[in-house]
Amino acid sequence: MHTMREVRKKIAALQEMNTSYWKEIRSLVSEMNLENNLQVISYFTYSLSIAHEPKQENFCLGSFHIHNLGTKPLTNPYICIKVSAASPFEFSGKYTYKDSKQTIRMANAWERINDPSEKEEFWLKPTPDHPLEPSETLSFSNFQVKWQPKSSYTGSILGFVYGEEIKEGVNSLNHISINGKVEEGDNDD
């Protein structure tokens, strides 16, 4: 059996060892360069309304969110939303064009920075320009994707985030994948 003195000695030794470990952990953490940590994630949220009948309008209402989980801001963020080429989808959203003659600016609007005739890729930047600070979220809200299927269809909507610090881009955590089967027997085409 151990005496009370021996137990106290062991407890004191364990406390000293824990204190030593905590000091080492704090030292290692303080040596880490946390100022250069950029961690950006993006993701879609959306809802669907699908009729499952030929020539009935279907739509997807969605938002694309960018969240800065790091300790460094993302300078000049911009996004690309890509609609698959073979799909019947028509994309629209709350965005303007640089050379638009519209005098009233929409609140929370984004600016489309690629050719307006492009129907598959939508390159957008927030207006006004400002960095995405740590712990901030930036959202391209309430975009719509509509389609009227004449036959079975499939398509996807992909999202990417770019900025001065991530020129090669980062994929979103998820994408929107939509497919449907339309019975082609009794169509009145």
Describe the structure in your own words:
This protein is mainly beta. It contains 1 helix and 11 strands, in the order H-E-E-E-E-E-E-E-E-E-E-E. A hairpin with a 2-residue loop joins strand 9 and strand 10.
The assigned structural class equals: mainly beta
Number of strands: 11
Main sheet properties: 7 strands, mixed
Helicity range of the residues? 10-25%
| Approximate strand percentage | 35-45%
Q: What distance separates the N and C termini? A: 94 Å
Principal-axis shape equals elongated
- Quaternary status of these chains? single chain
Unreliable stretches, pLDDT < 50, 5 or more residues? none
Q: Mean pLDDT, rounded to whole units?
A: 85
Short recap of the structure:
By secondary structure, the chain is mostly beta strands. It has one helix and eleven strands, in the order αβββββββββββ. It starts with a helix and ends in a 9-residue tail after the last strand.
Describe how the helices and strands are arranged.
Layout: H1 4-31, E1 40-49, E2 58-68, E3 78-83, E4 90-92, E5 95-97, E6 110-112, E7 121-126, E8 137-147, E9 153-163, E10 166-171, E11 176-180
Parallel strand pairs: 5-6
Antiparallel strand pairs: 1-2, 2-8, 3-7, 3-9, 4-8, 6-7, 9-10, 9-11
Pick out its properties.
four-stranded antiparallel beta sheet, 40% strand, 189 residues, 15% helix
